[in-house]
Amino acid sequence: MNKRDVYDTSKNLRISNLEELLNEENISLENKYFLTNKIIGEYEKYSFDSALDYIEQNIGVAKQIGNINFEKESRLKLAKLLVTSGRYKEAIDVLNEIQRQELPEKLLNLYYFSFKEGYSGLSFYTSVKRIKANYSQLYATYQDSLLQRLDQNSDESLALIEKGFRDQRAIENALRINAQRLSNVESGTPKYSLITFERSLLFELSGRIEEQKKFLILSAISDITASVKDNASLTVLAMIYFREGDIERAHRYIDFSVADAEKFNSKLRFVNISNTLSVISKAYEEKSLEQQKELKKMLVFISILALFLVITIIYIYRQIKRLSSARKSLKEANNQLQSLNEKLQFTNADLNRLYNELSDSDRIKEQYIGTFLNLYSDYINKLDTYRKMVRKYIVSNKTKSLLEMTKSKQLIDNELNIFYENFDKSFLHIYPNFVEQFNGLLQDDKQITIKDTNSLNTELRIFALIRLGISSSSKISKILRYSVNTIYNYRVKVKNNALNRNDFEDMVKKIS
């Protein structure tokens, strides 16, 4: 149903192509007649007015050609169009104008068929019993005449046999004939739509509603795909769904049928639809009113809910603002706490550094105090020994030997070596990794190598004193008994070999 426009567009395209051929210049009257017949075939189940217009045009073309058989054929098509659209009296009038004995053999079947369908319709819709009986007799006469002419295996013959079984309520026999007919057609053709519709009538007579609905649906699908606007399947299907209480679907189907009937312009179809349409529309309106009442109730309820929701949203919004404000305050407090924590960490780090420095300072002080006391005690003992030796030389009157001994520097050199040895051991005991870390501050090819790991050379002693906080070259010269220039030269030489000359001595002071 949703694709109806697609199928109709395809139908209109076929008709447009045929009409373009028909309007070509220099087309012969015979070709014009045959093309018009094809257009009539397209419009036959699609638009009554267009089909009627082209049939009347073809009657005129047949007269122009002077072909009486073409004219009679067109008149029979007119009668068929009138009878299939419910215009039975008009169809009979057209047929009465045709002399049966003048018809060619190939047109007799259409002649009898049109009479049969015309009198069948008149009999069905006539209320006067005498006239109804007359029409029924004429219907039976033309049906017998048509049946005698038809091939027993043709669809027209099988359709008449099936109808006979249906009228006699021999449903199984009728279904068997219908199945035989159905096997010879494909969906999407007017004949398939008709056969499946007739099959649904058989299931209706036997009370098998689900099977009836199935074949009505198949018939309706075929009608839509073939763009058959003169149809009845959806109308019957709508009434079934109405009786089942599915008003929505029934209303949708009957509206669809009305649109098709308007497109085809079939009076008979309008009459059939109008009774069903009024019942379904009334029920649909009542249901719509009920739905509107329910909708109003729901709208009131929803309005109350909406009001409650607005109040709730306002309350939640305020709570969120309060929560946001609290979170903001908490965040600021956390930031302040974090800042204080960082400051505390820095303070702790400074305290740890000061503690370590104080610990190192205390350790150095303890080490050097011990060393100083030992050295001081040794020098007192040496001084006492030296005093006794001088006294001995003086008492023994060996003043000349004593004078010679005081001229020698051997004693000073020995004591200086002892001082260096004690200084090196004490310093390396406090800073065991001094040499390794000191070399780490120098260029790779300028590092200092010492043979004895327990002693220092002159450069290392100078910077060992700097590590101990003695930065003045004059003080260092006095301690190590070198000239100030010598100390300065040593310092400059080593700094030139450093990786970072500017910060070298500061980095030395940080060696641990």
UniProtKB/TrEMBL annotation:
Residues 320-357 form a coiled coil. The chain crosses the membrane at residues 298-317. Signal peptide: none annotated. Residues 342-464 form the N-terminal Ras-GEF domain. Keywords: Coiled coil, Membrane, Transmembrane, Transmembrane helix. This is Transcriptional regulator. It comes from Algibacter mikhailovii.
